[in-house]
Amino acid sequence: HLITIRVIAQICCGYDSSVDTAYEREGMVDIAFGQQVVGNRIFFKMPIFNFDPSIRKLRKKLDTMYGVLGDVINKRNVTYRNNDATKDKEPDDILKALLDSGCDPQEVLEQLTTILFAGFETT
């Protein structure tokens, strides 16, 4: 699954997740946990309530992932979008398409997260 994470991260936002393999593995475990929690709720037709400890844990992990992706987006804006010298060198990836479309920052985070989860689950 590590290769999956690396490929999806590179395609989505030009991010090389292999630079920190411990964090990469933690992210992989977090995604698998999220899929298990949500999958169980769907399969057993269980509601998603905030007082459920597994849901609170999932939301905390999702907030962490949003933080990491937010940093990637901010770095992209500083490195390419807000810099005339490198503006033409921005990678042509999903993040570029989302930013070009005018999506608000929260929607960009949610779209990237969905793609990451879906790509991880289907490979």
From TrEMBL:
One of its GO terms (molecular function) is iron ion binding. This is Uncharacterized protein.
